[in-house]
Design a protein that fits this description.
alpha/beta; 554 residues; Nucleotidyltransferase, domain 5; 28 strands; six-stranded mixed sheet; 25% strand; globular
């Protein structure tokens, strides 16, 4: 039995799923001043009459990290960088960094040692700073300098928490790793308080099931692992909607999915039944990071979006002042328009009609105003989809495979989930000229996605046969090769063993494993092949445990 909880901008949803059947569902208002209260209210409702001891897992999709960033509830980070020669990225990171000496070259060889006195001066200037981040340019090929600097910081500043760039990501991209390490430390304390509160709540309710948190790439990770890597929990709401769509509708071909909630619409594009992934990592607060995520776009249109006239023109969103007037809210909303149009049946229809009269132009009837409001809302979502497709087409091409097989997205259907999907998704599909599906349990799709999301983890192995070593950046390993003759298949096997080891340490079962990236090329010196550079990244494949239907079977 699985418990899934999704903390959205308007509602917190909870579901109970057993063997692919949706047994129970509940909604509670999201309390932005105290997210945990909303989580507990939804959880208590959904567990009414259910033996909590039967729960095998609890999975959360939470906005706690995103909200901390948006609301400025992060703390100052001591950011120490080892960039070596080359581009100065000081202006491209969120905090003024301290630039240190020491350099690892592109082969993972030490060319200049870090200087302890520089670290000591940085710690002195950062007196009172409780969290730090350390990142080196080629640390993924040799993490020794990051480790040395981190040890010096721990000795001299005694921080509460410290993140190293190579631990966050095994990919080459110094800027993205530096930003990821920064944000991981910046939200660590805020996420830790939330995690501690969730544990206490589970104990009080007699729930002993393992706790998981949804990641931006659609996988889940144990809550304990998320406490040391909270940056992975950014953008989990949109990721939950993708997993919910996967579970409820099993997309095929090219599709666009819309999660239309109370505050925003999250858009994802699918190809061959698989959601497209952000090419090089998510952006957080406008800064590029190495956080692997689905390729998503959010637009400020939802059921509770404010509707008004500006210079005589009908405008929808992105603000939300409260719920629909039909349920006592202060201003006209998209949901009021849906009620008047006969696309929703909650609240007071008379109050909804009054809301439409407030924004009528001349002698327009409430029905005419409602139709126009929904058209404007659908047009905003349609425009965002068109923009997403244009951005995908304009992306730089890095691989021959993309040149040969790449093609622009061309969705042939729309799948809508979320509370406002029934009213808006068909209108967006009509604008695209394609069919539309709104699954029966669309209103709680995100909580379903969180409940059934599989745990995932990755390792990046890099081999230099000329020098006879390999590295696993995420695990901080730099070891000698186990044999002289070493090829790509050997690398996959070795990476698989380390992935299983890392998963065991995190308490994650290894299910389907996929190769995210693999390449092998020869090194030539004096017209002679001297060795190979091999890179292989494996991950436990994100996905869902099972398709989901209402009680009674799928």
């Amino acid at each position: 039995m699985l418990l899934g909880i999704d903390v959205g901008g308007t509602f917190t949803d909870a579901v109970i799923i057993e063997e692919g059947r949706l047994l129970a569902q509940a909604k509670a208002p999201t309390l932005h001043h105290d997210l945990l209260d909303g989580v507990l209210a939804a959880m208590d409702q959904v567990l009414a009459g259910i033996d909590a001891s039967r729960l095998a897992r609890v999975a959360l999709s939470t906005t706690i990290v995103t909200n901390a960033l948006v609301e400025g509830k992060t703390e100052r980070v001591g950011l120490l960088l080892l960039p070596g020669p080359g581009m100065d990225i000081s202006a491209l990171v969120p905090e003024k960094p301290y630039i240190l000496s020491g350099y690892i070259d592109h082969r993972g060889r030490e060319t200049a040692k870090p200087v302890g006195d520089e670290v000591a001066r940085a710690c002195l200037e950062l007196n009172g700073t409780a969290v730090f981040a350390v990142a080196g340019k080629f640390a993924v090929r040799n993490p020794s300098h990051e480790k040395s600097v981190a040890d010096w910081v721990r000795q001299q500043a005694r921080p509460d928490f410290l993140t190293t760039g190579a631990a966050v990501s095994g990919e080459l991209n110094f800027l993205r790793r530096a930003n990821s390490a920064y944000f991981n430390s910046a939200v660590w304390r805020h996420f830790g308080r939330f995690a501690a509160a969730v544990r206490q709540a589970m104990i009080k309710r007699g729930i002993n099931a393992p706790l998981y948190v949804l990641k931006a790439d659609g996988g889940t990770m144990p809550l304990a692992a998320a406490e040391s890597m909270p940056v992975e929990a950014v953008f989990t709401g949109p990721a939950a909607s993708v997993l919910g769509v996967m579970s409820l509708a099993a997309p095929t071909g090219e599709t666009v999915s819309l999660d239309i909630g109370g505050t925003t619409t999250d858009i994802a594009l699918w190809r061959d039944g698989v959601p497209l992934v952000a090419g090089r990592g998510a952006k957080i607060a406008g800064y590029p990071t190495a956080v692997r995520s689905f390729w998503l776009q959010s637009v400020g249109v939802g059921g509770d979006s404010l509707v008004r006239r500006e210079a005589g023109k009908l405008v929808v969103g992105p603000m939300r002042l409260g719920p629909a007037m039909a349920v006592g809210g202060p201003s006209p909303t998209v949901a009021d328009a849906m009620i008047v149009a006969g696309l929703a049946s909650f609240g007071d229809a008379v109050l909804a009609a009054q809301a439409m009269r407030q924004i009528a132009d001349g002698d327009e009837t409430p029905a005419q105003v409602a139709k126009n409001v929904l058209a404007v809302a659908a047009d905003k979502i349609f425009a965002a989809i068109v923009q997403m497709i244009a951005e995908r087409v304009a992306e730089p091409v890095y691989r021959v495979e993309d040149v040969v097989h790449g093609r622009p997205p061309n969705p042939g259907s729309v799948i809508g989930v979320g509370g406002a999907a029934a009213g808006l998704a068909p209108l967006v599909a009509e604008r695209l000229g394609v069919s539309c599906i709104v699954p029966p349990e669309a209103a709680v799709a995100n909580a379903i996605g969180a409940a059934v999301a599989r745990p995932t983890l990755e390792v990046t192995l890099r081999v230099d046969t000329d020098q006879g070593y390999y590295t696993i950046a995420e695990m901080g390993l730099r070891e000698s090769l186990p044999q002289k003759r070493f090829g790509l298949n050997d690398a996959r096997e070795l990476a698989g063993r380390h992935l299983a080891q890392r998963a065991a340490q995190a308490g994650i079962s290894v299910t389907a494993v996929e190769t995210v990236f693999a390449e092998e090329f020869n090194m030539v010196r004096g017209f002679t092949t001297t060795g190979k550079i091999i890179t292989c990244r494996l991950q436990i494949k994100p996905g869902v445990f099972s398709a989901t239907g209402s009680e009674g079977g799928v």
